[in-house]
What we know:
Number of helices of chain B: 3
Helix content of chain A: under 10%
CATH class of the largest domain in chain A: Mainly Beta
Largest sheet of chain A: 8 strands, mixed
Radius of gyration of chain B: 16 Å
Number of domains of chain B: 1
Number of domains of chain A: 2
Low-confidence stretches of chain A: none
Oligomer: heterodimer
Radius of gyration of chain A: 18 Å
Shape of chain A: globular
Number of strands of chain B: 6
CATH topology of the largest domain in chain A: PH-domain like
Low-confidence stretches of chain B: 1-9
Strand content of chain A: over 45%
Largest sheet of chain B: 3 strands, antiparallel
Number of helices of chain A: 1
Amino acid sequence: MADGHLFNNISLGGRGGTNPGQLRVHSGGILWKKQGGGKAVEVDKADIVGLTWMKVPRTNQLGVRIKDGLYYKFTGFRDQDVASLTNFFQNSCGITPEEKQLSVSGKNWGEVDLNGNMLTFLVGSKQAFEVSLADVSQTQLQGKNDVILEFHVDDTTGANEKDSLMEISFHIPNSNTQFVGDENRP
Amino acid sequence: GDNRGAAKASSDLIAYKNVNDLPPPRELMIQVDQKNEAILLPIYGSMVPFHVATVKTVSSQQDTNRNCYIRIIFNVPGTPFNPHDANSLKYQGSIYVKEVSFRSKDPRHISEVVQLIKTLRRHVAARESERAERAT
């Protein structure tokens, strides 16, 4: 326990879907390895700027935000893992994970939050979904009220999923006051 | 019933009450949950639900490279034939997801999804407009 925790069946989520693997949380940081080799993610304790927990269908998701703006999402933690890892993070990193909630109401209206590379769509202050602006190849303004995000495509697109998101657009009514006259909006 | 009635009622429709009400995770692909009247879209490794009443149109398309595309357009306020309704007034200031487009490896799955969404949408719209009519 003092030296860390090992978790099997933890998947790393991202643009191309999810990859199953193994996650080790130790006093120096976090190490995730893809099942069968290949991709690995290593995060040094000192680079962690934020941690989040979110209950997702039938399991829990750990969000790890690091210094350079990258954000990793690991899924597959049991409820008891959440408790023990929260303790561990508090003791070894001095960071208390924040709790986030997932929106499952199915509404298509809400708020957009921009934080680092991530665009989060929130419904009633709960997170509905997140996309990374680092994967956006092009943004377009359509008319006065619509913003289109086009995601870049390469050989790895959809490696772990059958259907891949190519484009998403948001409608920002004139009544919205959050992004009025902001040239830097997505 | 008219469109206004349906749109007004749809603002109160909820796909799921709890996180664990979502169908068990399967392959990451678009799913239609008829029981809960929801479509589930794979976005960044998560299945994201949208109530079918938020869907305006759905269409699919195939290119010469055997790639198949599906486009889902959601209801947003202020577009022609979808005037400012109770919904948009109630949620003034909100930002809307207007459109999503997915590329699929499986054309048969996409045409099935398009049919399922269209049928479910029709069914829910008919029921809601009937309900609105009865209420007046």
